[in-house]
Amino acid sequence: MALNGHQPDHDINGEDETPMKQPRSNKEMPGCLRNEPDSEAAAPAGRASSERHNSNSTTRRRLDSVKKTRPPFPWFGMDIGGTLVKLVYFEPKDITAEEEQEEVENLKSIRRYLTSNVAYGKTGIRDVHLELQDLTLCGRTGNLHFIRFPTHDLPAFLQMGRNKHFSSLHTTLCATGGGAYKFESDFRTMADLQLHKLDELDCLIRGVLYIDSVMSSGPSECYYFENPTEPDHCIQRPYPLENPYPLLLVNIGSGVSILAVYSKNNYKRVTGTSLGGGTFLGLCCLLTGCSSFEEALEMASQGESTRVDKLVRDIYGGDYERFGLPGWAVASSFGNMMSKEKRESVSKEDLARATLVTITNNIGSITRMCALNENIERVVFVGNFLRVNTLSMKLLAYAMDYWSKGQLKALFLRHEGYFGAVGALLELLHPS
Amino acid sequence: MAECGRLGRGTSSHTMDKSITLPPDEIFRNLENAKRFAIDIGGSLTKLAYYSTVQHKVAKVRSFDHSTKEAPSDKLYEISVQEEVTARLHFIKFENAYIETCLDFIKDHLVNTETKVIKATGGGAHKFKELIEKKLGLKVDKEDEMTCLIKGCNFVLKNIPHEAFVYAKHADSEFRFQTTHPDIFPYLLVNIGSGVSIVKVESEDKFERIGGSSIGGGTFWGLGALLTKTKRFDELLQLASKGQHTSVDMLVKDIYGGSYGSLGLTGDLIASSFGKSATADKEFSKEDMAKSLLHMISNDIGQLACLYAKLHNLSRVYFGGFFIRGHPGEVQALFLRHEGYLGAIGAFLKGAEEDNPNQYSWGENYAGSSGLMSISPDMNPMQRARSGTFDMLEMDRLERQLVNLPLLQDPSSYIPDSVDLSEDAPAREYWLYCFEEALDGVVKRAVASQPDMPEAAERAEKFRQKYRHKLQTLRYQPFAYGSLTVRSLLDTREHCLNEFNFPDPYSKIKQMENDIALKYYEKVVSSLEQLSWEERQFALVRGVLAGNVFDWGAKAVSDVLESDPEFGFEEAKRQLEERPWLVDSYDQWLKRVKGPPHKCALFFVDNSGVDIILGVMPFVRELLSRGTEVVLASNSGPALNDVTNGELQILTERIAAMDPVIQAGLNEDRLTLVQSGSSSPCLDLSRLDKVLAMVVRERQTDLVIIEGMGRAIHTNYYAMLSCESLKMAVIKNSWLADRLGGKLFSVVFKYEVPAEKNMCDSAALTPL
């Protein structure tokens, strides 16, 4: 474990100082310093907070030590979920001529391969719009890339790693998510790679806090929907997540985990539900014959869920005033499908929409109860279920606002599903 | 976000089957005097409720006037069979398809129709409004569904002791029944209709819908129909019971390869429902999808219920409606045996408010109720034999209002029965066999008790069939009427006997026994008087025990008694086990009676004849002489040869005439006779006559004596009282004796002082 807090200080020359003295952009919040208290906490000689406000020389000394403990390139963070593998890759842009020379061919080719393509194989995709440029990480400046591919294509990925002699570069790869455990031996046997396994919730929270901290200009990382109850005036607005605690973090992947976060190091998993993104896609595939998330979402956007669901007004003719239930509320998801005639009259699009609405509302409902039980008003929704899924986000925003009478605020993050992978990368750079 | 309309488990009414042949007189019973109709029409099932009066025969005893010379015989009292009218609630549940047929049948049999309205509730009520009004000529009066549901729920929780149960997946019995806490409020009711409503109930009239979910029974049905092309709700449940959800669901181990240890999530936990079906190139079986769907919905409802319970700080959560078997975390999921009837019961209660049915205690009539069916039809072949899906619940209005014995240490944890036969398979097997074996004898006795009635044999035969059918049902579904216990088996037999107008098959035997025993009373008392104090104490206890050997209810004894009526009191004493007894705290008891007298003793008596007259009465006499007041509690109605309150009144008067001690006790109001409120050979201390409870409280009772196998062993053996207690019984069943580690005629003499008292004593000695 590298403890940069008490490294002996020598070798005071280094390019690393430059970015610190003259920050080039707002994005270069140095992650290593931000995470300092974390590492200090583990170090016996913890002096973090005092050092932060110290003179430049101290900072410099510390940066030097950073260089010492900085892991060699390439820098990856990986999150192997039930459905998707999320990969973040830091591409250094400040490579010196000397470094360029020293850089082994393998490393170069990986860098080129990842950065010059936006798609890998049939299913790998780089989310270019999420790329973070001019980011300073551990004293190095570069771009952070966000790549994903289906978990079932992991063997192909491993094959590629083998072909490109990935294992010759460095011995450990930081990975989180269940797949880090499930496929650990595959990594070893197929690609000769040793995984450094990390807890997914630790990574998730670390990633969320980090990405939010580096995104202080440009498109805001965190946003919400203004006027969620008025579809015509519902607008996406940036939300400054400066003082985020306490926070309910809802991670919607294949399944859902709900975490209450009280501080950087203090969080608990409140509950979870098996009705998540995997359920939406799974049911859509069965009901409509579609085969991808994008396809399912596309169908959902064209459908009408009220033909599938039984609404309060379908039963009571209008609002059920006695219990304060509005007529438009869903009384029974898929309730109309009890009738043969109605089953025959709905379209695949309607079914996809109803599935989306059902799953989303249920997540909203459980989240709202957790927020009440934990007495937390801010809810951040993350996870790849929300990717290109404005429908669900608006629904969640609406549900949170409506059923809590404006008490709860639904927040979203641009890098939806990548926080676990980011957290894994941070662990590589600054082991906690 | 939920409709409170309930979904039934029956079929949807696609086919109107009008050609059913009902045995209607076995279903819509007592229609002649029916009034106050209520109906709850759900998505697939209709529940009809009505109040009726039942005329049945009761045995009454009347003392002969011995002052006149016309005393016709040396008999103590005369027995007469009289007609008595009692109130009964009938609830019938059937598929909507039969509604028209049923309405026709009711119309044809409804004689005394002063009734003008029928209370209606349920989502289907408006749909059938015209039909009901046309067929029955009654005005349909709609009642709010949720109000009815809550009213019904309160009613069953208060009146049916084993109403609630938890579902135990891997236990010997599917269901584990809960004793209802005497104070049923507050609780959470999760009503699962096509959607889900979550209701917090705080008191009889105060409830609030605090939440709900749109994922409910309708989702299971609707989504299930789409996925499996199976139309019927029942079939979907059937499919689900055969499926494997693991082929469709993504489990934690599918993602992690094992468990997610740091969070304590086991590998088998579902991480993503339908997570494996997110592929276009694989087929999934209907069964597996139905199972996955059932899991998904059940877990979801369970989770929401748990979150609501936590938020509102409620520990009791009852699930009603669509049957789910979720196990939501920290909160215990409770189900209700009669959940299907709640709406109808509530609607009925709304209509009967002027009769104030809540001021009475009601009891489930086991003879007329069909009991809880397993949701798996494979479990009970008996069930298939029934025509159609007609389920019944009948509840008798009890003459007395029943309350807890104020001396129970912890009323909420009191369980009357010593052994739960639904969980103890060997015991269940034995007792079911035992009751079946004894059936011939019971039938014979029933016929013999009515020698002047030629059709008695026919009725007795019907009784035999009914009771045997009940026993067979219980063999397959031990949980059908709540916890299966020796008490419930005995009570069911009594209900069935009453059903066929055998109110008191032992009346003549009891009369004869009482007559004989009375003749020996003075002799027994005077021989006791001659003993030294200490000898007498022991002789009194032995007397009670020997008297208790005389019991027609116990198989081993009834054989002896029947073959040798001369079997005497002395012989009984010889049969008794010598000390040390199987359970023997006589020394402690003796030490105690050397001390100051008790203020007041409550004595639950057992059999008539030798038991009460030669065993109990001398014991009572001694207590009175010591200055202890005595309250004698006997059954309100007949059960086997147990002495009833009516009989005991007469017996006591006769004894008082011979014995100045008893006479003085009566005159000075130090000897009181009360009825227990029960008509069972066993004893449920949580359902006793309100008057008894009052007397017990007024007299500051500090000793409770419970006598006999039924009251002190089958029930109450483990009962903890807040005062001193004495349980005395002779084990007259070799199987039971064997089980308890004794032999036939082993003695249980259990004298207990409440732990609290001991604790106080020791607390005084040990400084903390």
TrEMBL record, chain A:
The keyword Chloroplast does not apply. One of its GO terms (molecular function) is pantothenate kinase activity. GO terms for cellular component: cytosol; nucleus. Residues 1-68 are annotated as: Disordered. InterPro entries: ATPase_NBD (IPR043129), Type_II_PanK (IPR004567). GO terms for biological process: coenzyme A biosynthetic process. Pfam families: Fumble. Pathway: Cofactor biosynthesis; coenzyme A biosynthesis; CoA from (R)-pantothenate: step 1/5. It is found in: Cytoplasm. Its EC number is 2.7.1.33. Keywords: ATP-binding, Coenzyme A biosynthesis, Cytoplasm, Kinase, Nucleotide-binding, Transferase. It catalyses: (R)-pantothenate + ATP = (R)-4'-phosphopantothenate + ADP + H(+). Its main location: cytoplasm. Homodimer. Catalyzes the phosphorylation of pantothenate to generate 4'-phosphopantothenate in the first and rate-determining step of coenzyme A (CoA) synthesis. Belongs to the type II pantothenate kinase family. This is Pantothenate kinase 3. It comes from Channa argus.
TrEMBL record, chain B:
GO terms for molecular function: ATP binding; hydrolase activity; metal ion binding; pantothenate kinase activity. One of its GO terms (cellular component) is nucleus. Its main location: cytoplasm. It catalyses: (R)-4'-phosphopantetheine + H2O = (R)-pantetheine + phosphate; (R)-4'-phosphopantetheine sulfonate + H2O = (R)-pantetheine sulfonate + phosphate; (R)-4'-phospho-S-sulfopantetheine + H2O = (R)-S-sulfopantetheine + phosphate. It holds the Pfam family Fumble. One of its GO terms (biological process) is coenzyme A biosynthetic process. Coiled coil: none annotated. Residues 437-743 form the Damage-control phosphatase ARMT1-like metal-binding domain. The keyword Phosphoprotein applies. This is 4'-phosphopantetheine phosphatase.
